Here is the input.
Amino acid sequence: MIAYSTVGVNDMKRAIAFYDAVFAPLGCARETTSPTWTGYSRAGDRGRFFLTRPFDRAAATPGNGVMLAFLAADRAEVDAFYAEALRTGGADEGPPGVREGMDPVFYAAYVRDPDGNKLCAFVRK
Here is the structure.
């Protein structure tokens, strides 16, 4: 349903280092790089994810209640996403684990990127 999504960043170089690291375990790769926007995708997927500097040139800020979730193939990918996020300047918002009351089982990790955007990697197995 979603063709692409974007998050605002203040330091493109820092954001690229973070997203290159956290997306690698999920099989996603950078496909486009420029000073104002950078795009990622996963082979076989139609959707795209972009980093962008806000068009109004104001500082990028995270939205309250906004979160992007990325599908992982297995729990090891979720764990690696989380580890890379913390290693590259992200902040913990919920370590990898089973979230109770979900059927099928929902295994997820939650982080914030260096600009404060909330992200999740999950698998339902």
Q: What stands out?
A: The longest strand covers residues 91-99. The mean pLDDT is 94.
